[in-house]
Amino acid sequence: PIILAMYIAAAEKQGADRSQLMGTVQNDLLKEYVARNTYIFAPEPSMRLTTDICSYCAQHMPKWNSISISGYHMREAGATAIQEAAFTLANGIAYVQAMIDRGMAVDSFAPRFSFFFAAYTNLIEEVAKFRAIRRAWAKIMKERFGAQDPRSMMLRFHVQTDGFTLTEQQPLN
């Protein structure tokens, strides 16, 4: 939130309208508990901070991606492809529910949610993972949360190659 605030202040100092700013803030604090152990606050205030940013961006920065829900870090911490998908979907559900609990309509914020996944070297497994997550997210958003806007049901994501498979491995002996 501090860097986002500084970005907004710098943009406005240069005459930019915050409603026209585009970008992404990771803002995924749940993955810190699951995979990285680098959290600062307890879960409840962390969720409040995350939903504060998502709510602010939905209301004032409609082109900004207010969260990038990360499966990548879980995969790097040892999760399988299936676990990466499951943990990421669970975190996404938690964020959507928290926003709804704040009184936000799902279609007012969900179109700007994005995701971040790892891409390992098994191409078939990775393609299947991405297709399955995409279908599951669309179904969750429509059936569980009542999303009407097709953009709320889209799984917008990017991937990075993982560090593990790019590291030279010990030969099998």
**Strand residue percentage:** 5-15%
Point out poorly predicted stretches.
none
| Rg | 17 Å
Widest beta sheet: strand line-up: 3-4-5
What's the structural blueprint in terms of helices and strands?
Blueprint lengths: L1 H12 L9 E2 L5 H7 L6 H18 L3 E2 L1 E4 L1 H5 L4 H21 L4 H4 L3 E7 L3 H22 L5 H4 L3 E5 L12
Parallel strand pairs: 1-2, 3-4, 4-5
Helix pairs in contact: 5-7
Describe this structure in words.
- It is a single chain.
- The protein has helices spanning 2-13, 30-36, 43-60, 72-76, 81-101, 106-109, 123-144, 150-153, and strands spanning 23-24, 64-65, 67-70, 113-119, 157-161.
- The chain has eight helices and five strands.
- 54% of the residues lie in helices and 12% in strands.
- The mean pLDDT is 92.
- The protein is mainly alpha-helical and 173 residues long.
- A three-stranded parallel beta sheet has the order 3-4-5. A two-stranded parallel sheet has the order 1-2.
- The radius of gyration is 17 Å and the shape is globular.
- The chain starts with a helix and ends in a 12-residue tail after the last strand.
Offer a few descriptive terms.
5 strands; 8 helices; mainly alpha; 54% helix; two-stranded parallel ribbon; single chain; 173 residues
